[in-house]
Amino acid sequence: MSNDWKFLANLPEWNKHPKVIQDTGIEPDILFYSSATRQIIMVELTVPYESRMEEINAYKIEKYKDLSKEPGKAGYKSQILLWNTTLQLNQ
Fold this sequence. Notes:
By secondary structure, the protein is α+β, with helices and mostly antiparallel strands. The chain has a single domain (about 5-85), classed as Alpha-Beta Plaits (2-Layer Sandwich), CATH 3.30.70. The protein has helices at about 20, 55-65, 70-75, and strands at about 5-10, 30-35, 40-45, 75-85. Strand 2 and strand 3 form a beta hairpin. Keywords: Nucleotidyltransferase, RNA-directed DNA polymerase, Transferase. This is Reverse transcriptase. One of its GO terms (molecular function) is RNA-directed DNA polymerase activity.
């Protein structure tokens, strides 16, 4: 177990992704990583219309499939979590 885990979000003030992610040009919404254990967990959040859930999910899988391979080239283990949710408004 390592205590060097870092949490980053794709926000201007928190946008300090590790080089292995920066080199891809794609930035996940949320990133957890440990340099000591060489692990990366990427989280992509999506709030599509219910009618487009499958379409958006397929798009996100395609977008991030190559990104999940890049950390492995640098010796990192990586996981990508796609989190789809719907927004419900009550009037």
